[in-house]
Amino acid sequence: MNTTELISRVNSINIDELLKTIKVPVTASQESPITFPPLKRPLQVDNWWLTDGRDTSAVQPHISAKLAMYYSIGYQHRPYLIMALGVNYGYALMAFAKGSRAAGVPYATCNGYDDEVGRPGSLEWVRQAFLTDLVPYNLSHSNARQYDACGIPLKHIDLFHLSADANNRDTAKDLELAVPTLSPRGIIVVDKESSETLDICIAAATKHGFKITEVCGLIILDR
User: What is the CATH number of the domain that holds 64?
Assistant: First the structure.
């Protein structure tokens, strides 16, 4: 076939009809993106991390004293690396980070573990919130008990937050996980759920050589 014939045949092809006959295999990247249903979560408004936010029907108008204290601790201590066992909706982590940033630490980084029991999808919302506020983060869907034998694979934590449960079932174990991760100036902030929480913290402080401060429903262990 000479060049003239080839050009003639090419020109005679109906491209539109030809394209209809071609079946291109669909790859994973060409499939419709995975979508998730809306999360049942507190409403997000300006400074949402300073509101109570537990009522999903309306944002609480008052400022939570505990979250304001988290912010103050972040501002005074200026942590670079922040860690939490029990992220929940990220209020505490965000308050610590915001306080640290206000004090001159632009890249305060939040780390956290949560198994999302009772609040599926909450970590994804926390990630979205941190991305919106340009807060560096490292969040893991995991349970603290996974690390009892091997320890938490993080070091140089300047502020470690423990969200103790009402019956203090795991508070002592969580404290033992927290201590080896701390930087030389690292502190542990524990939510005081009961007098038993304080007793557990005193025992850990005595064992590891920490001082204890109790303020606004929080227990702070520092060296």
Answer: 3.40.50.150
